[in-house]
């Protein structure tokens, strides 16, 4: 349209010897077909030029209106608005989790993060998976997770964790390697398809690796051998039928629990939940800690209770960033 207006304006200037504003005026009244009188006497060449210009402009305006109508009817404005809103939300993310891949494993990861009300963003480059993410109403980036600029767009430098669950081990290794280089402090969990990939992923910087096939096999055996125990564990993790949750709570600075014995901290009394274990430096686990166990700074307590009870203990532990 710009080229059409510019070309017609120049044409009227040359043919009718008009000023720029008069030529532009002639161009606009011809395109809009308003029927105002011409600003100069029309000669034969000007009339032929106007006929061709009208035919071209009517066709172009018709095409433009059709395109605009299609854009509006297909809901592209809503889609553009939603993408813009999602982009702004991603730009504000801090201390969040990045999920790379929304395939069979990734979808279950996303459901768990949504259930726990954790801030996260998903990176996926498959259109079918993107449609699924739209239905789940989660923030996503439609791109390749192996690209450094995409991880930066997902604010990897401000993230507290990354989950790599792409379809290929090589891609997961590349994502882990890049993410670890960009953020040395973040916690990284990666999916391992082959047993030999576990060492490669850890070498690349993954804190933990998970093999869905191995976990699936263990769970099937457990459901056969100890079905009631497995039912209880499943309900703690998924909360299908119970309002019970399992959480890791870190004792931070200024917490009232530091240097107190479990009995004196009165966790059961104040929060009403159970402390299953305490994890300390060098992966030292204290299972079923005794009442005289002294709590220390940076101790990680594995607890079981309702969401409300866990919130109470988080306040006591000053653990607000999990």
Q: How would you characterize this protein structure?
A:
By secondary structure, the chain is an alpha/beta fold. It folds into 3 domains: 2-73, Helix Hairpins; 80-210, NAD(P)-binding Rossmann-like Domain (Rossmann fold); 243-317, Regulator of K+ conductance, C-terminal domain (Alpha-Beta Plaits), CATH 3.30.70.1450. It has helices at residues 2-16, 20-32, 44-73, 76-91, 104-115, 127-136, 148-153, 169-182, 197-204, 212-225, 227-238, 262-265, 267-270, 307-317, and strands at residues 97-100, 120-124, 140-142, 161-164, 187-191, 208-210, 245-250, 274-280, 284-287, 300-305. The strands form 2 sheets. The protein has a 6-stranded parallel sheet with strand order 3-2-1-4-5-6, with helices on both faces. It has a 4-stranded antiparallel sheet with strand order 7-10-8-9. Strand 2 (120-124), helix 6 (127-136) and strand 3 form a beta-alpha-beta unit. The chain is elongated, with a radius of gyration of 32 Å. The model has no long low-confidence stretch (mean pLDDT 88).
Estimated share of beta-strand residues: 5-15%
**Content-based structural category:** alpha/beta
In total, the number of strands is 10
Count of helix runs: 14
CATH class descriptor name of the largest domain? Alpha Beta
Cα-based radius of gyration, to the nearest Å: 32 Å
- Provide the CATH topology of the largest domain: Rossmann fold
> What string gives the helices and strands in order?
HHHHEHEHEHEHEHEHHEHHEEEH
Shape: elongated
Q: Report how far the terminal alpha carbons are from each other.
A: 54 Å
- Helix proportion range: 40-55%
> How much is the average pLDDT?
88
Total domain modules: 3
Largest sheet: 6 strands, parallel
- Widest sheet: strand ordering: 3-2-1-4-5-6
Unreliable stretches, pLDDT < 50, 5 or more residues?
Answer: none
């Amino acid at each position: 349209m710009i080229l059409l207006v510019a070309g017609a304006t120049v044409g009227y200037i040359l043919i009718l010897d008009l000023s720029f504003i008069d030529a532009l005026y002639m161009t606009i009244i011809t395109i809009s077909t308003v029927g105002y009188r011409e600003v100069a006497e029309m000669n034969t060449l000007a009339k032929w030029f106007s006929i061709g210009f009208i035919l071209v402009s009517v066709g172009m305006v018709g095409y433009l209106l059709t395109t605009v109508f299609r854009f509006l009817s297909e809901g592209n404005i809503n889609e553009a608005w939603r993408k813009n809103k999602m982009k702004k939300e991603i730009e504000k993310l801090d201390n969040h989790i990045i999920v790379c891949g929304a395939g069979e494993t990734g979808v279950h990861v996303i459901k768990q993060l949504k259930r726990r009300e954790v801030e996260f963003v998903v990176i996926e480059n498959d259109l079918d998976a993107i449609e699924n993410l739209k239905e789940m109403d989660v923030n996503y980036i439609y791109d390749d997770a192996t690209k450094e600029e995409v991880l930066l767009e997902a604010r990897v430098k401000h993230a507290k964790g990354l989950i790599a669950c792409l379809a290929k081990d090589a891609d997961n290794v590349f994502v882990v390697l890049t993410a670890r280089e960009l953020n040395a402090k973040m916690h990284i969990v990666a999916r391992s398809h082959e047993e030999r990939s576990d060492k490669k992923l850890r070498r690349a910087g993954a804190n933990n690796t998970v093999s869905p096939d191995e976990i699936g096999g263990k769970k099937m055996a457990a459901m056969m051998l100890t079905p009631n125990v497995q039912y209880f564990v499943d309900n703690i993790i998924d909360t299908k039928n119970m309002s019970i949750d399992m959480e890791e709570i870190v004792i931070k600075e200024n917490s009232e629990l530091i240097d107190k014995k479990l009995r004196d901290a009165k966790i059961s009394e104040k929060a009403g939940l159970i402390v299953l274990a305490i994890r300390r430096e060098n992966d030292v686990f204290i299972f079923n800690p005794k009442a005289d166990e002294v709590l220390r700074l940076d101790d990680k307590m594995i607890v079981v209770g309702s969401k409300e009870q866990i919130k109470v203990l988080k306040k006591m532990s000053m653990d607000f960033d999990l």
